[in-house]
Amino acid sequence: TLQKETLGFQAEVKQLLQLMIHSLYSNKEIVLRELISNASDAADKLRFEALANNSLYENDSELKIRVSFDKDARTVTISDNGIGMSREEVIRNIGTIAKSGTKEFFQSLTGDQAKDANLIGQFGVGFYSAFILANKVTLTTRRAGSSEAVRWESAGEGDYTLEAADKASRGTDIVLHLREGEDEFLNDWKLKSIIRKYSDHITLPIIMKKSEWKDGEQVPTDEDETVNKASALWARSKSDISEEEYQEFYKHVSHDFENPLTWAHNRVEGKQEYISLLYIPSKAPFDLYDRERQHGIKLYVKRVFIMDDAEQLMPQYLRFVRGVIDSADLPLNVSREILQHSKDIDAIKTGSVKRVLGLLEDIAENKPEEYAKFWNEFGRVLKEGPGEDFANKERIAGLLRFASTHADTDEQLVSFKDYIGRMKEGQEAIYYITADTFAAAQHSPHLEIFRKKGIEVLLLSDRVDEWLLGSLTEFEGKKLQSVAKGDLDLGKLEDEAEKEQQKKTEDEYKSLVERIQASLGESVKEVRVTHRLTDSPACLVAGEHDLSGNLERLLKAAGQ
Ligand code: ADP
Ligand code: MG
């Protein structure tokens, strides 16, 4: 259709736009950062698609971003010659939010601007941030390989228009029609300093007109200049990169709004040569548990972008890690299929996982408070580790943290090492209990005897805990023992007198036990006298090799 049509934004987009304008107006400079970040992504996408179809370059393979401004029209324009968008892609990418967790996100908003600004950051600001600066945005785009261009325009309120457009060059132009009072952005020096501050790490050249002074005013000339360093940040030496540069680069690769918790930058030489720059975010994204999620590790070969979200490079339990890996050995035309069976990739993955675990061990050891923050965000994901990565099981186990009867709060701060350090004389096992809520674990009658004897028990109530315990059965030679399973044998923790007493009680109640057994019949396997309890009259116990009561409940709830 050539006719101009008006379409409505998805309700969530409308809401997001409102919030964005009201909560982030003090972060105006990020608008340019976000749009340049998108332009750079668009170039990466083109390179990736062109690996299979070189004609997409249309004889223009020098990818770049151009920023310009027009004082009279009061506009700032960001142009790229990346992949561009088809009409359908414009509607899908710019008119709707398809992210999982969107509903939860909007429910979590409080109306408090400072708090909400923070949340929006986690959700991702992206393209819509344009409306912080502009009261009208015109986007004209032509997808690589297509002859039809489309113009999208919106005032960032309820709707937008779409119409066919003429555009000879491939890619996307975004024109920001500045709001009243934003004229400071119509300034050469201002724009260049924002680009250097936030987008210096962008690997493509960001080009602006050179300017010269004329009658006390800076005016653009006809000559181009590259404003950013336009070199791969990760390939530079560590000492040449500032903290801020590392942080801005993180925001670009992760699409995150906040600074990362920490990072590791390494140049690996030897059999496999590669550079890795890996970040641990400070906040979990909304879609951490969405299997379809993207934005993991970007793969480069000798500075050339190969692909986003190369899932072969990081195991699932480290899916929160962001960054780039740049290999010197892989072929430039490497595909996802090749990656799946590549020994080189396996070696890079193994090395990178070690780096990340090392980084986490370092924080855990030296900055326990930061580690606690990390654990709150990503601990449940890390607990998937022992089941997924047998080679690093012990190391991952060392990084785990749990709640326990020691502090008796739901904060997960206790490591296996801490636990072992507090074990009673004669204690051989690490005791734990699983339940579907923390309160249920904490108040379980199974804990009575342990509390009485002052023996610490780990209180496990995350869904993933059962899965964890299925693959982790000991730590440093100490067996992990459920207090709710099997015949509780406290071994050397009981003295002779207690054992004797137990025996006596068993004899005394033999006939009662038999009667209870008879009346419960098939519903139970066995009835026995226990010394587990000090206050409660009875409790349910799972067999040593049976599913725990908690896991049984989980499976039932899942319809198994
Ligand atoms: P994100 O970058 O995190 O995906 P954005 O809101 O920044 O989110 O952008 C939304 C989507 O719009 C992008 O994923 C992309 O598909 C599309 N898009 C935005 N800018 C461009 C561009 N310059 N060229 C091509 N596609 C773009
Ligand atoms: Mg973006």
Structure description:
- With 560 residues, the chain is an alpha+beta fold.
- It has helices at residues 11-23, 30-52, 87-95, 102-108, 113-123, 130-133, 188-198, 243-254, 336-340, 343-366, 368-382, 385-388, 393-399, 416-421, 438-442, 448-453, 464-471, 496-508, 510-520, 549-557; strands at residues 5-8, 65-70, 75-80, 134-142, 149-154, 159-165, 171-178, 206-214, 217-226, 262-268, 274-280, 297-301, 304-307, 322-327, 403-404, 429-434, 458-460, 474-475, 478-482.
- A hairpin with a 2-residue loop joins strand 18 (474-475) and strand 19.
- Helix 1 (11-23) packs across helix 5 (113-123), helix 10 (343-366) packs across helix 11 and helix 10 runs parallel beside helix 13 (393-399).
- The protein is elongated and about 105 Å long.
- Adenosine-5'-diphosphate binds next to helix 2 and helix 3.
- Adenosine-5'-diphosphate is lined by residues 34, 38-39, 41-42, 80, 82-85, 93-94, 124, 126-127, 172, 255.
Residue share in helices?
25-40%
Overall 3D shape? elongated
* N→C terminal distance: 51 Å
Q: What is the multimeric organization of the chains shown?
A: single chain
- Which spans have pLDDT < 50 for at least 5 consecutive residues? none
How confident is the prediction overall: mean pLDDT? 88
Number of DSSP strands? 19
Which ligands are bound? adenosine-5'-diphosphate, magnesium ion
C-alpha Rg (nearest Å): 30 Å
The largest sheet has its strands arranged as 1-6-5-4-7-3-2-8-9
Largest sheet: 9 strands, mixed
Q: What amount of the residues lies in strands?
A: 15-25%
Helix segment count? 20
User: Structural class, judged by helices and strands?
Assistant: alpha+beta
